[in-house]
Amino acid sequence: MSDYKTIHGTAVKSYTTDPDNPIEGQVWYDKTNKVLQYQHPNVTTAGAWRTGGNLNNQRTNGAAAGASKDSSLMFGGGNASGSVDFVESYNGGTWTEVADLNQHRQNIAGAGVQTSALAFGGLSNPPVVMRALTESWNGSGWTEVGDLNTTRAYMGNAGVSNTSALAAGGDTNATNAVVAVTELYDGSSWTEVGDINSARSRVGSNGTQTSAIIYTGRLSPGTSPPYTTITESWNGTSWTEVADMNTARQEPGEAGSSNTDALCFGGEPPPGSVLGNTESWNGTSWTETTDLSTARQQIAGNGTATSALATAGAPFPSVSVATEEWTGPGAAALAWSTGGNLNTSRSQAGGSGTQTLGLVFGGSGVTGATEKYDGTSFTEVGDLNTGRRTIAGAGTQTSTIAFGGNTNPSDATPSALAEEFDGTSWTEVGDLNTARFGLAGAGTNSESALAFGGGYPAKRAETELWNGSSWTEVSDLNTARDYPGGIGTATLALCFGGEGTAHDAETESWNGSAWTEVNDLNTARGGISGAGEYLNGIAFGGETPPGVVANTEDWNGATWAEVADLSTARRFTAPAGDSTAAFAAGGQEPTTAATEEWGQGNTIKTVDTD
Fold first, then answer.
1. What is the pLDDT of residues 524-562, one digit of tens each?
2. Is residue 75 within 8 Å of residue 83, measured between CB atoms?
3. Please, what are the domains in the chain?
């Protein structure tokens, strides 16, 4: 039998205390407590729902296809006017209308992913016409393909693409006559295979053509109770009854990748209310977990048990456009920890790059000092040609542009200067059209950037686009402000917080041509910093009366959620990184050299030998 040394090339070391700075996965023997211990990454212990971007068209009883909460295609459904042919695509924050179904339908089934999906069955209304129709999605349009053998709606569904799907159960007519029929699709036609054991409709289901699960649903008319908790597992040939759900219901949302991985959420229990209940399946049993934020039924669901999307539905008497995103247990638990100090204490500096390849420049006292960060320590490099504070910038450690700022250490002197950094030194380039300080920036490198907001003598809404040689004025922010945060690129950016007529919570998104107001921060503040991209970012620190704050908020492309605070409340930090690995360097009050790093921490665990 192999031992640890044979596998890893070194023996397990013994310590009387925990080792200094253990790395993830490191194992050691604690001689004091006589236990074997190891370093384990911090993860969440429970799943949670979070608000996503709203659909453009409200509806119920639609279907969805997609591999995660960040990727979905929703099609069909119904509203007060009847069944619809609408199709929308989700990118993790925003729904976009794409090519419609050929036939409007509700109570439809679906399978696949965002770029390769299948829509089958359902009913059109008005008048009510049951459908066997199947349509195939190739990422840009729908094509009619082979019909189901059994015409029906409200059926269970599973499958990974437009060439591999499963349909089970359902209603065959408007009087709710339920069936047990199962069919498999091979890319051209449907074939009948083994029936489910309990005929039913309005079920939850998920999985693949060879590993699927069907659960809950409505039984034959007149059955008491009308809804069931029965769960059945499919192995590619036959269905087998397994452990029941905890709560009987019909018309839930569902997600999952196999017969050992499922999530059931929402639905209608008798006698006619709606549920927010969520249950998770691990292949053996169902466990109740975190409820939906909004109870509803007739939900379109997609994804897995760890990354799912609940879209639309009916929190009666209304019809919803709401989307909720599910992140299951075991996700990275992110928090702030101590990083390496700056060599020069400062506030109001600019930042760019990543957590392990970062850059800090300028700042309080109108210094030109520039420092590189390697994830552990800062190293001084070539200064800016013109020292400035309340400066903005964007790019990488070897390709950054710094712009604007205040050149006066004790008063207000706005600057239009821009400089590019090549990894060694700074070079002056074309000035901004509008001199200002306290502005924000976004961009990928020294050749592509966006400057927005700022102040003096008035709050600014101007936005300018940098193309590598000159700045061009483009569409203004909707809310003029100084000291906002900014993240993203020159074509997809986010502006948040700042100081307009007061400390602001407003957030605006940039699509390359115009700014659009989106959901506000939870805590209004100026002097805020941020890191990340248009669909995934964090905002941290800042000032809101009566003083500085440590609040950190996470952006998922649609809404902000409060997460772990900075260890030390401060404003005007120099930021770098993304939504999962960032740093906040310097800041005030008081002015500091301290750096905090955002990321997944680790926990020391003991090996259970029982």
1. 999 999 999 999 999 999 999 999 999 999 999 999 999
2. no
3. 4-41 (no CATH), 48-327 (2.120.10.80), 334-600 (2.120.10.80)
